[in-house]
Amino acid sequence: MTEQTKNDTGGPGPSTVLDPELKRARGTDLVSTVFRFQSVFGLVVVFIAAIVFSPAKNGELLFLDSSNLFNVVRATSETGILAVGMTLVILIGGIDLSVGSVLGLASVGAAVLLVNDDLGLVPAVLVVLAIGLAFGLLQGVAIAKFGIQAFIVTLAGMQIARGLARIWSGGQGITITYGEGAHQAPLTFSLLGERTFNGLVPIPALIFIVVAALAVILLRVSAFSRHIYAIGGNEKAARLSGVPVTRVKILVFGICGLLAALAGIVHAGQLNFGGPNDGAMYELDAIAAVVIGGTSLTGGRGSVVGTVAGALLVGVLRNILALNNIDSNIQLLIIGLVIVLAAGLQRLRPASAG
Amino acid sequence: MDSEAAGGAALVEMAGISKAYGGVRAVSGVDFTVREGEVHALLGENGAGKSTLMKVLSGEVGGYDGEIRVSGEPVHFTRPVDAQRAGIAMIHQELDLVPALSVAENVFLGKELKTRYGVVDRGRMLSETGELLDRAGVDLDPRRPIEQLRTGEQQLVTIAKALSLDARILIMDEPTSALSSHEVEQLFTVIAELRRGGAGIVYISHRMDEIGQVADRATVLRNGSVVAEFDARAMTAAQASEAMVGRPVHLMFRTEAEPDSAHLSDEPDGDDLLRIEDLVVRHKRPRPGRRDPAGISLRVRRGEIVGLAGLLGAGRTELLETLFGVGAGKPTGGRILLDGEEVAPSGPRQAIKLGIAFVPEDRRIAGLSLEHSVLANTVLSIVERIARLGAVPRAKERALATETTERLGVKLASLASPVGSLSGGNQQKVVLGRNLLTEPSLLLLDEPTRGVDVGAKAEIYRLLGETASRGVGVLLASSEPAELIGVCDRVIVLQDGRSVQEIDTASVSEADLLAASMGEGAVSEELGERS
């Protein structure tokens, strides 16, 4: 019998030894915070770069001009609103490819209802929002109840919404004119092209900011958001924990459709036009903003703050490239590289960073 | 030493191995040898450094200090392939199989057999896999996709896969954690055959009884260092546990204060919390490898812990799933009475509302969202309940999570740490804590101590005893006879989806319980083998 005991002298008992795993976990907290808000840091970096590379006029930096800055937000507002909804969808491990087409459908809907049908402003807006909500909910039912993959369902939804937009508009874009007469939209609708707060803040930017703020609050405090993250983290565990998985999923796709319709209304109001072919590829811009924002495409990880910063990052980048008269094709290249870079940074993120 | 001669030449010599992860020493100065024809058990609590040491040996982690010799030759592995070429294979605790591929395709993954024309030779792969499965003592169709197999069957496939490597040194990390007693015996037969062929085996397990049965030597790690070496056959569970945790451990399952079962069984039947009468679940499409209830009757009283025994595939998991409303089909016969009321749980939400809680079999797959915080995982089942106007009160959820993790003795850095950073035992406590927060009257558990170290195991048993003593009825499915006898008041034996026997744990031995699980026919043979 070779029984021997080594190293078992004195020493601190196991209860007083700090578990090495615990120490490691504490160290990663800071790192994970940086990674969680990487797009905010990225936005700061791009912002500073924009100041450095900004052309000047009369000793003033064009980029920092307040109307330019708000133009950036306005230009970002439509994809930004889409990206907020997309964030929720991606958080549950889904994807929604239909939002660009739904935006087009909503812009057509707003134009048709206001101009052709002479519906009042409030009913027209409500009907369009309801269409977007219903469209999203139906997609959610197909995904959550019948278990068809989100990619497939929303790919189909993308075609269907586009087809509906073209049928509804008769294949032609509808120009919105304002006034009191027949086939004229109420003047209030043209506010979407205006600015408020002394002509400084564009209304679409304001809507984007409000939507984003509501989403941030929703994701911070609500039990609903806990369910969203839980489903994205481990759907089976969420279901066994009593999370109403099917209901939450349907609702999330509904919200995404609703926000796509809202973006479509904003789109119609900004351009005074209902375009059946508008919004094509917007879904990809929205997904890009979400990815740059650090939300994991596998779900369960990410934030609306990140997405907003991601959307603004692309907006600032586009703006400074445009201010410097860089060719729009080159712009595409640069934005493509930024997306890859952001996704690459995600790979470096410690596995434990939540 | 005399064992030197008996054990044969050294296959692997690890000397002064140290490995640190970012400043944290996982292993320091460890000597470890494996001889030809030897089974060397490696013991230690989770986080003691067993896995790290074996990852160094199998080439999965580089950057270590110290020396490794294989058959006397110094080696330095930086990739798993290096180790495999040197004849070292590792069977992982996590089952690294591709779910959609068949058993045969998984066994030959990355080394597919080809015909002369470079096409995958399916026929030969199937027949060779069949032989490997036979050697591993498994009755499985090599064409079945992995995803259709139960965890235990998958584990047997990984063992067959390791056999296909013809390794000289085989590292088995918890190879029996999902196996039924009968399959464990088969595995031991395979191990005996391997060692006769001169292979050396490193055997990592938390099950003391197995180690005495299968291993020659045992080395105990604690906090990254070797603290004891034993002759495995002469080692007692108490000695090993004490070396692992550094203090004496009492595997006292029930607390003194709990009401004894004799007293309970005198009470009238009206006090049954759960009563199942002749439950039958029939599913339109029978699922391979699963056994739905085909006639189960049992009852659980308040404050009682009832065990579910039976072989893998006897229907233990499926019964619990049916009770929690996540089974494959609705009950087609019999009744489930909870508190005297007939219930038919249609899903987890409804089951939780009825006061039923469920700790599932595989906490990583079904129990936890590993990347999320301990806090989020702990309160997930009750966030809706504590929310005011849809908003979760932060202070309240923190307080509840703190109270729960403290009461359950979860070791953690902070509530914000990802639950995946905790050890297996602590993860399981989080699952248990989440379930207890729903204030259940009936607690269902499926293999709650699988892959959990001995210290955490004792704590989980204590918590179960405590929970029962507060009037909660507990139904515990386990494949460890010692656990069933130690923890439960009564044990119901399931066979082929039927309840066949009820056993009072006060008057039964582990061998008897095992024999009962195997069915009458196998009793004599099984007992003969063991003695």
Task: Summarize the topology.
The complex is a heterodimer of chains A (354) and B (531).
Chain A: E1 4-5, H1 20-36, H2 38-53, E2 56-57, E3 60-61, H3 66-91, H4 99-116, H5 121-144, H6 150-169, E4 174-175, E5 195-196, E6 201-202, H7 203-221, H8 223-233, H9 235-240, H10 245-271, E7 273-274, H11 282-292, H12 304-323, H13 328-348
Antiparallel strand pairs in A: 2-3, 4-7, 5-6
Helix pairs in contact in A: 2-12, 3-7, 3-10, 3-11, 3-12, 4-5, 4-6, 4-10, 5-6, 5-10, 7-8, 8-10, 11-12, 11-13
Chain B: H1 2-7, E1 10-21, E2 24-35, E3 39-43, H2 50-57, E4 65-70, E5 73-75, H3 80-85, E6 88-91, H4 103-107, H5 122-135, H6 151-163, E7 169-173, H7 181-196, E8 200-204, H8 208-214, E9 217-222, E10 225-231, H9 237-245, H10 261-265, E11 272-281, E12 294-301, E13 305-309, H11 316-323, E14 331-338, E15 341-342, H12 348-353, E16 356-359, H13 363-367, H14 374-379, H15 383-386, H16 394-407, H17 424-437, E17 442-446, H18 454-469, E18 473-477, H19 481-487, E19 490-495, E20 498-504, H20 510-518, H21 520-530
Parallel strand pairs in B: 3-8, 3-9, 6-7, 7-8, 13-18, 13-19, 16-17, 17-18
Antiparallel strand pairs in B: 1-2, 1-4, 4-5, 9-10, 11-12, 11-14, 14-15, 19-20
Helix pairs in contact in B: 5-6, 17-18, 20-21
